[in-house]
Amino acid sequence: MNLRVDLLLDSERRSGGRIRVRFLVRTAAILVPTIVLGIVFWIFWSFQSQRSKLKADEAYVNRKKPEYKEALRLKGQVARNLAQLAELKALSASRMLWHDQLLGLQKTVHPMIQLTRLRVAERLSVSAGTPVRINVMTLTGKATGDDPDTIFNRFKRSLEKDAVFEPVMDAVKVTRYDEASQDESGEKVRVFEIECRYKPRKVAKVAAEKAKK
């Protein structure tokens, strides 16, 4: 004999029937519009939030615009000042150090040589597409003594080979030499003129243009 004890009351039993289609349709008709409205509201809220942020950013930019313009102006001014400083340095570096040249000349001149004139000429030119500064020193004087020719040649050679002149000298040219001159006492005198052409010195292009003005 089989015994079966049922511990569930009739009121506690769940319905085992299938969910009706009408119920699903009603549920969807409520949930779908709600979800759609929620998405639309979220999009609208995001749009308003971004719009407010954009307005705030625009207001910030408008407030900072004068400062930004001033910063750009100062930046441009600094750049121009630095460029001018670089040009001045380049222009200064291209100049001949005449102090050293004159000291070297003073040490080189023989006691029997008398310089009557010293002239320096400077001009800007272009060499191989590069602006350069060309310096020319012209010496006029006379050599005296028992052997003025030897004294003069020694002086000319010093202008070419001396440690002060050789690194910067391009050419030494005798443009005048009077061999038959004599002074009032009958002593031999050699009147001469020497043109000392220095090596071209590179100079910045912009600095060269300003130096011409």
Can you give a write-up of this model?
The protein is 50% helix and 24% strand. It is an alpha+beta fold. The chain folds into two domains: 19-93; 98-209, Threonyl-tRNA Synthetase, Chain A, domain 2, CATH 3.30.980. The model is unreliable at 206-213 (pLDDT under 50).
Instruction: Count structural domains.
Output: 2
CATH topology of the largest domain: Threonyl-tRNA Synthetase, Chain A, domain 2
The count of β-strands is 5
Rg from alpha-carbon coordinates? 49 Å
Shape: rod-shaped
Strand content: 15-25%
CATH class of the largest domain: Alpha Beta
N-to-C terminal Cα separation, in Å? 131 Å
Order of helices and strands: HHEEHEEEH
Number of helices: 4
Biggest sheet, in brief? 5 strands, antiparallel
Structural class: alpha+beta
Q: Identify the CATH architecture of the largest domain.
A: 2-Layer Sandwich
Describe the structure concisely.
With 213 residues, the protein is α+β, with helices and mostly antiparallel strands.
